[in-house]
Design brief:
single chain; alpha+beta; Tetrahydropterin Synthase, Chain A; 5 helices; 3 strands; elongated
Length: 163
């Protein structure tokens, strides 16, 4: 008994294996890769275009003359009904070296202002996200008012512990 073809493969050419297409793809990949390498190597792309006539790059100067004036630690008792009972706070003031002795002489007033402010603050404010940033800005402004404009550049919080 002989089998007859059902007509699906009748008259169809045998299937190609795709080797020529793969060789063409490999050749194009090598050609494009080597062209990209040459473009980068020769400086056609990613070239340093600075020349001798360009102005020199500015050199970053050394650190400005500033000093840090430490503030003695402040311990504040918080109002009842909060999770924490005490706040321990310590900071340093960033000042110009020329103003260091003046700010040091005013430290008792600075500590008084910070102590008064920290006692008056609502403990819920301390637990909010971004609360410490707002607190720092408020304290810096108060310190700048006490010491005079331009004497204190920044307030750096060294310790802020709720216990």
């Amino acid at each position: 008994m002989t089998t007859t073809d059902t007509g699906q493969n009748a008259g169809a050419a045998p299937r190609k294996t795709g080797k020529p297409g793969m060789l063409i793809g490999l050749f194009l990949a090598l050609l494009l890769g080597s062209g990209g390498f040459y473009a980068v190597w020769s400086g056609m792309i990613f070239e340093d275009r600075s020349s001798e006539n360009d102005p020199p790059v500015a050199v970053v100067p050394g650190l400005p003359d500033f000093a840090f004036v430490p503030i003695s630690p402040i311990m504040v008792s918080l109002s009842p009904g909060t999770n924490a009972r005490h706040l321990r706070f310590q900071a340093q003031l960033e000042v110009a070296k020329a103003n260091e002795s003046e700010v040091t002489a005013l430290l008792p007033r600075v500590i008084d202002v910070l102590n008064s402010y920290l006692r008056a603050i609502d403990p819920a404010e301390l637990e909010k996200p971004g609360g410490l940033t707002r607190l720092r800005a408020q304290m810096l402004r108060r310190v700048q008012i006490v010491t005079g404009d331009g004497r204190v550049r920044d307030l750096l919080i060294m310790e802020f512990v709720l216990s």
